[in-house]
Amino acid sequence: MSETTAARSSRLTTAFDIPRPPGLTWYVQAQQPVGYEVSLTRGLLSPANPALAKAVGADGRGGVRALVVVDRVVDELYGGALRAYFTAWQTDATWLVMPGDEETKALEQVVDVTRAMTEMGILRRTERVVVVGGGVLMDVVGMAASLYRRGAPYVRVPTTLVGQVDAGVGVKTGVNHGTHKNRLGTYFAPEVTLIDPEFLRTVPARHIANGLAEIIKMALIKDKDLFTLLEETVTQISSDSLADCGADMSEVVSRAIAGMLDELEPNLWESVLERSVDYGHTFSPSLELRADPPLLHGEAVAVDMAVCVALAAGREYLAVPEAHRALALIAAAGLPLTHPVFTPELLQVGLADAVKHRDGLQRLPLTEGIGSCVFVNDVTAAELARALDFVHAYTDRTNGPEQ
Ligand SMILES: NC(=O)c1ccc[n+]([C@@H]2O[C@H](COP(=O)([O-])OP(=O)(O)OC[C@H]3O[C@@H](n4cnc5c(N)ncnc54)[C@H](O)[C@@H]3O)[C@@H](O)[C@H]2O)c1
Ligand SMILES: [Zn+2]
């Protein structure tokens, strides 16, 4: 403490007749339980299905309001059914249609949502915001709900595969800021997440592959059975097969969600920075926005996973045939294994960024055998270069003329 501050503090303590410092310290401790439901349901927009009505507190007798924020593309495809659903349940819904693309994922969008909440005069605890869209809208509206009067209840209806197995099931919200992905954000749980695979029927193939990257991630780090199931079914995975949700597809999606929740639940606020769900998310955040044209999130994750598979093979955590199986699965899902921005030099830059994000250590998740995970802190530049060589050797072989 500087002399001036000490003198001022001493005058204050005399004036208010409290002990001189060190004197009084108050310590406040509180805990807030978090509980929310993630539910896989069919026919969510059929008036016969009460799940969404229940989520907004409607019983069909009227007097219930909700703010429904819908992705623009989803509104074109499902807006009629959504409106008919709320009408059938006598719910007075206010509509806000917003773009759901990465380029528009910014603080201004969050403010737009809060403005709509103000204009509607939404009640603080009993009226819900419902967000219907992909991962972008989940993050934007979740953030708006967390900021509005320091927290307003909201319901998530994710409509992309990334939304259904990842962005819609955790508690993270956020927007891009400057050149950084998700640099501003909060942790704020919804009341409920309602997942209907039927929405996937209209999701383009590239975005299905995008979501598959996160499912393959869960298989590699914690679910060997899911890995085998994916190997057996990957060529049949499509918008239609996921929407039809037969036994295999339902198992793929529900295993991915269960695995994700199992990892998130004990570490909801990321107090532990060794997170196996960060697998494939070490180099990708720095490189995702550097690619031109930009890579989708899952595509960047796929290339990152390929590097990590090769790193594990280099350390003999994965036998070479297992590493090749992992690379084959990623490729069969329609995802890239390499990209020009993933050079040894840029991988080092990405790793250095990740070290900052992970509070000074690499904490790099690697597979130890397929289906389990270890963390390492000592990956070298030479190892990164060898890992890239491993992946390139694999792609050269599998894409070669003899194939
Ligand atoms: N909070 C988290 O834990 C978390 C986890 C993973 C990803 N994310 C975030 O999620 C975002 C990526 O999510 P995304 O891949 O869903 O992107 P997105 O929300 O941009 O959706 C992709 C595209 O699909 C369209 N779309 C949405 N539903 C559709 C449907 N049913 N049919 C046809 N088109 C549809 C959208 O309009 C958009 O053009 C990223 O911003 C990422 O940071 C967040
Ligand atoms: Zn991800």
The helical percent reads: 40-55%
Helix count equals 15
CATH top level class name of the largest domain: Mainly Alpha
CATH superfamily of the largest domain: Dehydroquinate synthase-like - alpha domain
The major β-sheet equals: 6 strands, parallel
Structural class: alpha/beta
N/C terminus separation? 72 Å
Shape: globular
CATH fold assignment of the largest domain: Dehydroquinate synthase-like, alpha domain
State which percent range the strand residues make up.
Answer: 5-15%
Provide the low-confidence segments as ranges: none
C-alpha-based Rg, rounded: 24 Å
Order of helices and strands: HEHEHEHEHEHEEEHHHHHHHHEEH
Q: Within the largest sheet, what's the order of strands?
A: 1-8-5-4-2-3
What is the total number of structural domains?
2
Mean pLDDT: 93
Total strands: the figure is 10
Bound molecules: nicotinamide-adenine-dinucleotide, zinc ion
Gross CATH architecture of the largest domain: Up-down Bundle
Overview of the structural elements:
Helix 6 runs parallel beside helix 7, helix 7 packs parallel to helix 12 and helix 12 packs across helix 15. The strands form three sheets. The protein has a six-stranded parallel sheet with strand order 1-8-5-4-2-3, with helices on both faces. The chain has a two-stranded antiparallel ribbon with strand order 6-7. With 403 residues, it is α/β, with parallel strands linked by helices. The chain folds into two domains: 166 residues, 3-Layer(aba) Sandwich (Rossmann fold), CATH 3.40.50.1970; 195 residues, Dehydroquinate synthase-like - alpha domain (Dehydroquinate synthase-like, alpha domain, Up-down Bundle), CATH 1.20.1090.10. The chain has 15 helices and ten strands. Strand 2, helix 3 and strand 3 form a beta-alpha-beta unit. It is globular. The mean pLDDT is 93. It binds nicotinamide-adenine-dinucleotide (NAD) and zinc ion (ZN). The site of zinc ion (ZN) has 5 residues, from helix 12.
